[in-house]
Amino acid sequence: MKPRSAPEPAVCIQGRGAVGMALALALAHQGLPVAWVAGAARPPSSRPDPRTYALNAASRRLLQALRVWEALSEQPGVVTPVREMAVHGDRGGQLAFSAWQQRQEALAWIVDAAALDRALATALRYAPHVQAVEQPCAAPLQALCEGRDGETAARWGARRIRSDYGQAALATRLQADRPHRGRAWQSFASPAVLALLPFDGAAGPAAAGYGLVWSLPQARAEALRDAPAEALEAALQDATGGVAGTLRLADPDPAARACWPLRLVRAERWHGPVPEAALHPAGPRAPGVDPASWLLLGDAAHVVHPLAGQGLNLGLADVAALAAVLGEARVREAWRATNDPRLLDRYVRRRAGPTAAMARATDGLWQLFAPSQPVVAGLRNLGLGLLDHLPPAKRWLAAQALGG
Q1: What pLDDT shows up at residue 355?
Q2: Cis check: omega of the bond before 374, within 30 degrees of 0
Q3: How far is CA 105 from CA 36, 76, 116, in A?
Q4: Could you write out the DSSP letters of every residue in 89-126?
Q5: Residue 219 belongs to what H/E stretch?
Q6: Among 5, 226, 244, 275, which is most buried by a count of CB atoms within 10 Å?
Q7: Which residues of the chain have pLDDT under 70?
Q8: Helix axes 218-225, 229-240, angle to 10 degrees
């Protein structure tokens, strides 16, 4: 229960993941009263979280503004910069990127997923203007950041179009017998996509660690998730061809592996009226403004194939865009409620185009490399090689991934 003296929230945020926590921090930094649905306290999980995030420059800037990045980077082995990236096709095609060529500090930063969640949660505990609540409460704007499987959006009429890839992503942590030197590696081998993300871990750079994200036909991914360590290591060695040296599982226990189905998802609309009267705030409202509105962010609005590692980057870009729209309105249009449809439409205009473009790009790449016919394979690998010799095109691609 919130104290009686606490102001009524302008936004209620539903979502306990990184996107929801980052949004609560971003709005609180503007002085907006926010309710964050933390739910009941959960017992600590005995299962390790093997996931890693590849954060781009825009996401890093947001986390720096939220004063979270410093807390992450001060922890040994939690953040690893990617200096180079090599992309290998299935018929000899290759494409290479380097931070030096892009005149950037890094192409991306690989971040421990659990550490990021802990850093955001810690920051929230000390953030003013944030009320942690167990259940959604009345507010003009209900920000839905519940992820791809959140039930609230569907219950309130947010129709989402889904296309299943028939694949699943397998994630775990690996150790190699030689240093990664900040080099990420990605392989397209129809119909699989395998990414090795350099990740130091607690042992530091000498440990030559990697985060694995391997997209496979669903039955194969689930079989490898449950396979003995030796079988999974043999499959990895065969798939990578030794490009990263000899790979071993950092933890042979199958509990240290994660597996989830892959799909392409887009919301038909990103905001609408909240149908539950109990969540409508009391008091007068402006003409043409609903008593309360819902708004989608992150995977609740869009899900893309993980081959480009852009899922969380898109969600954090949603956070930055909504914070900017509401912040600008507080300065220039202070009379508008946080759920004014003009403001919500501005947010959608800023984000619908970039997310749709990323969805088309990732889906197009997957569709290009999914067929196994020799002629198609030869053409796509030839295209990779040609692109590697076109610096302007490579710079443009890298700029899209870096997020500006």
Answers
A1: 93
A2: no
A3: 34, 19, 21
A4: -TTS-EEEEEHHHHTSS-SEEEEEHHHHHHHHHHHHHT
A5: helix 218-225
A6: 244
A7: 1-6, 40-46, 90-93, 202-207, 369-404
A8: 130
Q: Read out DSSP for 282-340?
A: SS---TT--SSEEEE-GGGTEE--GGG--HHHHHHHHHHHHHHHHHHHHHH-TTS-TT-
- Residue 214 and residue 155: Cα distance in Å, rounded? 33
- For residue 288, CA distances in Å to 87, 292, 387 come to 51, 12, 51
Quote the CA–CA distance of 303 and 297 in Å, as a whole number: 11
Q: Is the pTM of this model over 0.70?
A: yes
Cβ-contact 134, 37 below 8 angstroms: yes
Which 8-state DSSP code applies to residue 6? S
Q: Residue holding tokens 């969805």?
A: 359
Farthest CA pair distance, the chain: 70
First to last CA, the chain: 41
Radius of gyration of the chain (CA): 22
* Residues 250, 173 contacting (CB under 8 angstroms): yes
Query: Tokens in use for 178?
Result: 């030689």
pLDDT in tens, 111-124: 999 999 999 999 99
DSSP track, 139-162: -SEEEE---TT-HHHHHTT--EEE
Cα separation, 50 vs 154, in Å, equals 29
Residue type, 169: A
Q: Which residues pair with 157 in a beta bridge?
A: none
Answer left, alpha or beta for residue 84, where phi above 0 means left and psi between -120 and 50 means alpha: beta
Find the length of the chain: 404
Burial class (CB in 10 A: 0-12, 13-18, 19+), 298: buried
Nearest to 311 by CA among 258, 359, 360: 359
CA distance 35 to 24: 8
Task: List C-alpha distances in Å: 349 to 91, 197, 297, 306, 396.
Answer: 40, 33, 13, 24, 22
pLDDT tens digits for 180-218? 999 999 888 878 889 999 998 755 555 589 999 999 999
Domains and CATH numbers, the chain: 11-40+50-402 (3.50.50.60)
